[in-house]
Write a structure and sequence with these properties.
Blueprint (H helix, E strand, L loop, with lengths): L15 H19 L23 E7 L5 E3 L2 E2 L2 H11 L6 E7 L5 H12 L4 E5 L5
Parallel strand pairs: 1-4, 4-5
Antiparallel strand pairs: 1-2, 2-3
Length: 133
């Protein structure tokens, strides 16, 4: 019960705890984004060269359509000739990425056969193309 001669206190909102929560969230997001960067090696200062050329890995695409037909870089190819034609495209001094695009209706055995042929080629790295749901 308030006495009539007591002064009325103004209402106050204390924002210090709110600022603590915001600062904690900001710190969390800053720290988590630092871990999202992908580093391929140790951080070093690379030397500069005027003759430097960026090298992109060669990409070869092997496709199996729903009918089981085989294509190499959009050109039809027989399974027996696949290994020889990929070897012709592979440079022995550089790694080559061979991407296998197989329709989901193609049997597992056909995909494994193609992958086995590609894995026998030195300098060829194998990747399987997928689609996000």
């Amino acid at each position: 019960m308030r006495l009539p001669d007591e002064p009325e206190l103004p209402l106050q909102i204390n924002i210090v705890p709110l600022m603590d929560v915001i600062l904690a969230l900001l710190t969390f997001f800053i720290m988590s984004t630092l871990f999202l960067t992908r580093s391929e090696g140790l951080p070093v200062d690379l030397p500069r060269a005027k003759s430097a050329v960026s090298q992109q890995p060669t990409k070869i695409t092997v496709t199996l359509d729903p009918k089981g037909q085989l294509f190499l870089n959009r050109q039809p190819v027989q399974l027996q000739a696949l290994e020889a034609q990929v070897r012709n495209l592979v440079d022995q001094k550089q790694q080559v990425l061979v991407v296998v695009n197989a329709d989901e209706q193609v049997t597992h055995g056909q995909v494994i056969t193609v992958m086995d042929r590609v894995r026998q080629i030195p300098g060829a790295k194998l990747a399987i193309a997928t689609q996000r749901p």
